[in-house]
Amino acid sequence: MEQNFITLSETTQTFHLHNNEISYIIKIEEDGVLNHLYFGKAMKHYSGHKTYPRRDRGFSGNVPGNLERAYSKDTLPQEYSTHGSMDYRLPATIIRRENGSNLHDFRYFDYQIKTGKPKLEGLPQAYVMAEKEATTLIVVLKDRLQEIYLNLTYTIYHERPIITRSVSVVNQTDESITLEKIASLQLDFRNDGHYDEVISLPGAHLKERQISREKIHGGIQNFESRRGASSHHMNSFIALVNHNTTEFSGPAIGMHFVYSGNHAFQLEKDQIEQLRVLVGINDYNFSWLLAANESFQTPEVILAYSDQGLNKMSSTLHHLLRERVARGEHQYKERPILVNNWEATYFDFDSKKIEEIVDEAAALGIEMFVLDDGWFGHRDSDNSSLGDWFEYEGKLKEGLKGIADYVHKKGLQFGLWFEPEMISLDSKLYQKHPDYLMQEPNRTPSSSRDQHLLDMGRKEVRQNIEQQICAILDEVEIDYIKWDMNRSLSDVYSLALSERRQGEASHRHILGVYELIENLITRYPKILWEGCSGGGGRFDAGFLYYMPQSWPTDNTDAVERLKIQYGTSLAYPISSMTAHVSAVPNHQTGRITSLKTRGDVAMSGVFGYELDLTELSEEEKLIVKEQVDYYQKIRPLIQFGEFYRLNSPFEGNLTAWMFVSCDQAEAVVLMARTLANAQPVFHEVFLTGLDKNACYEEQITKQRYFGDELMNLGVNVPDFYGDFQTTFIHLKKV
Ligand code: GLA
């Protein structure tokens, strides 16, 4: 059957997914074993001559039912592997049946090609705006013994070097089966040396998404979260690269797992140096009981291919996440410059304080005020009131509505903080519904920041929280919500589930969170939603489907932010990354940096302030006013332009990145030097992405340069004096 972007060749028995940039080839091997043949740069045709070679290898036995000794699942690159038929590498799925057996042998059964991209119910995902944007292949595998089917789904975007993948399991036996592991993606490579390094984004609270690049070695490498969220500690993204891959050249495959719970990226280099990659829900503390005739759909993985290094990979992902994962009214809207009172007041505020901050904000041209934690229940510290989403009476003299009205009258928008997935023991909600807390009955659960998890897998729990939030949103005019989540999951046990289903609790919890948020964003489409989890504990492609921006870290130190924002940019668009100027000495590190440096770094994201504006000197207020005015000018370019990393803070003292407008008419470059030294080396930075034939004028010096000159000869880094110095270069085509 011949279709534009996906073809099945009867002669070579291959499916070929292709567009102008990429090809992906799957071969139906002898006896229906599904062989992975290729993923990479586009090829128009595959002749069928180069197939996977065969060789008899000791202790790597045959494909069941086939006596050909050189044909073994233990070495054949496959599309989806399982346990029990002599593939000793990590399996993509383990399924246990009622008789205790976990042996399966999945073979090719059928296929379907569809225009567009089927919707995944209840899950975040990349979508299409029109059917003609993508084509989908579903390859159906069936176990040789049992009526258990796997639908491997591949969608190729026609105009992007992107393939998305997911898997569903259909149980058509008349018994229950238990999924003990179910990866969303398997990608096997031959030892062609293409991908010998892996980049991941590990970190910690206040230190998220630090770039780590390591050799892929023999054996197993794991990049995973077991915290119930995608986590500060290991982001749900990796990139496979070659040791020669740079920002501008070489192959790279970026992989986003579009999910906000426990994830696992597993790499295994086998006995003959071939690589297997598995991505999916972590099998740690996971199982799923599938009754007869039920099916299970995994979350999806986004694959982005680049043959021009990491910047191109990031750009592909930035566009996809911004254009086909983020949704809603604010997807393409310029985001307001806000001031948030958290680092200004913490829990200690009253109406007078808030109004003073709002007055200053209005005078400085700031566009939104966000009231953070502490406005509800009787919350004066972090040890009470989560779950009580009603106003803290008396804390704000004029009430929440009064403050919102005050803010609006001053011409600003009003935002509010919530942490809906949590419960404090000191709360009315806990008094009334102690069973809403996620815990095993009679076992004392672990407390973290004096708070506990609500079991969001339970409908009545979600409904209670939804009703409370709606009551506030129906009463008070709210333009923005910061949706926080300040602890990891523990004591994962659900009263709503039978003993055999307890392994489902954490996935059901995330599905419940998604459902609750989907209801709210649908009911209140005008609100701008921002994700947060103690900073960047849930900064993932899944959450971006619901909220177009997220707080990347609680660390507002401008110097540490260079690394965090640089690392984040590898996988996420700038429009998703908020960044605030805070007070010095910085509350997380004690470091003192200038207001200019703090402003320049924060202006490289979705910009705002998080300090007590009333404490600024007149001179500082002038600077803030200038920053606000300036950001308003460059905002479309920063939030929606092309972003390029030029110099890495992970590799030296100098960081540089730049933003170029889509028509190449304007560019902003940030250069930041961390520590000063005597007898400094003269540094230069080579710009990119400009129109090589155009002449650009630098907006401060009024000097003119040609595009090719800026890219080839480069620009001098200024002779900075002192630590933590930054500068912008702002170019406009003349
Ligand atoms: C988390 C957030 C902060 C702030 C506090 C409030 O840590 O990341 O920005 O909202 O909660 O408790």
From TrEMBL:
The transmembrane residues are none
What UniProt keywords are attached to this protein's entry? Glycosidase, Hydrolase
Residues of the Glycosyl hydrolase family 36 N-terminal domain: 33-291
Q: Which InterPro entries match?
A: Aldolase_TIM (IPR013785), Alpga-gal_N_sf (IPR038417), Alpha-glycosidase_related (IPR050985), GH (IPR017853), Glyco_hydro_27/36_CS (IPR000111), Glyco_hydro_36 (IPR002252), Glyco_hydro_36_C (IPR031705), Glyco_hydro_36_N (IPR031704)
Gene3D superfamilies per UniProt: Aldolase class I (3.20.20.70), alpha-galactosidase from lactobacil brevis (2.70.98.60), Golgi alpha-mannosidase II (2.60.40.1180)
Identify the residues that the record assigns to the Glycosyl hydrolase family 36 C-terminal domain, covering every copy.
655-731
EC number(s) on record? 3.2.1.22
Q: Which domain of life does this protein belong to?
A: Bacteria
Give the catalytic activity.
Hydrolysis of terminal, non-reducing alpha-D-galactose residues in alpha-D-galactosides, including galactose oligosaccharides, galactomannans and galactolipids
What family does the entry list? Belongs to the glycosyl hydrolase 36 family.
Q: What is this protein called?
A: Alpha-galactosidase
Q: Which organism is it from?
A: Candidatus Enterococcus myersii
